[in-house]
Amino acid sequence: MTDFKPSEMFLRLQDGHVLVTGNSRLARVLSGQYGQWRVQCGERQWRSPNILPWTAWLDKLWEQAGLQAIEGIDRPIPNRQQLQNLWENALAEPENAGFLLRPQALAVQVMDTRRMAVEWGLSLEHPAWRGDDDENHAAFQRWNTSFEALCRQKGWLPPEERPGRLAAALEKGFRPAEDRIDLAGFEEFNPAQSGLLEALGQAGVQISEVTLDPAGGGVTCWRADDHRHELDRMARWVRRRFSESPETSIAVIVPDLQSRRDEG
Predict the structure, then answer these.
(1) What CA–CA distance (Å, rounded) separates 154 from 142?
(2) Is the pLDDT of residue 152 over 80?
(3) Which of 148, 178, 181, 241 lies most in the core, judged by the most C-beta atoms within 10 Å?
(4) For helices 162-171 and 54-67, what crossing angle results, to 10°?
(5) Tens digits of per-residue pLDDT, 164-181?
């Protein structure tokens, strides 16, 4: 992979590159900044930029591989709620439910545990899972066996298995519609991601990585008498900063915003 600076990013998007981000928030921010850039260029309309978070990009690749009738890409992928329901059903089976007080509460934890195990290349069939040293390992292996059997029965494919299936599809002749991919906002790539990116590169797809410069700025602290006073001071400070520098970007974090909506 090659690196390039953010100053080139929008030009590459305009030229037809796909920008894949590490999370949904970065995709939204960069999409907004791209629109501002086009306005500054004097344009009034343009094609939406092809900016996608990793999971949405996988959805797109999976659909393209399915349309090309590639072997192994024939099972639907459950969304998060459907996946959680599958885990709840697996944990509620008689051989599992007898050991659990609240199987529904455990579903999210084991769902994320399996995702990380697959993404980091851990074998879920390794004998260590069934050892006597840690009953939690053995329990998870038993739950996972029930979950995988239920997925096969219902025809689902767990979403964490997509990168591996797509990498195999590339070896069988799958070719994505876009062959120029830029990556932004990834601190590191897990083995599943690295394997897919390597397979894409071997299939002729150009993979580049964006080097994003950290945002500058400082910290301002003040003491407030109560919540309302705090909000008032914050609003006055933001207004003053915008008056002094209209191009400034300011983020305001209010942890308990939902319960304080009427305090403005």
Answers:
(1) 19
(2) yes
(3) 181
(4) 40
(5) 999 999 999 999 999 999
pLDDT digit string (tens) for 16-46? 999 999 999 999 999 998 988 888 888 888 8
CA–CA separation, 243 and 171 (whole Å)? 57
Residues in the chain: 264
Q: Which residues pair with 19 in a beta bridge?
A: 51, 182
User: What does the block give as tokens for 89?
Assistant: 């059903």
| Model confidence pLDDT, tens digit, residues 58-115 | 999 999 999 998 888 989 999 999 999 999 999 888 777 666 657 677 888 999 999 9
Three-class HEC string of the chain = CEEECHHHHHHHHHCCCEEEECCHHHHHHHHHHHHHHHHHCCCCCCCCCCEEEHHHHHHHHHHHHHHCCCCCCCCCCCCHHHHHHHHHHHHCCHHHHCCCCCHHHHHHHHHHHHHHHHHCCCCCCCHHHHCCCCHHHHHHHHHHHHHHHHHHHHCCCCHHHHHHHHHHHHHCCCCCCCCEEEEECCCCCCHHHHHHHHHHHHCCCEEEEECCCCCCCCCCCCCCCCHHHHHHHHHHHHHHHHHHCCCCCCCCCCCCHHHHHHHC
Q: Which residue has the tokens 């994505």?
A: 176
In this model, does residue 253 exceed pLDDT 80? Answer: no
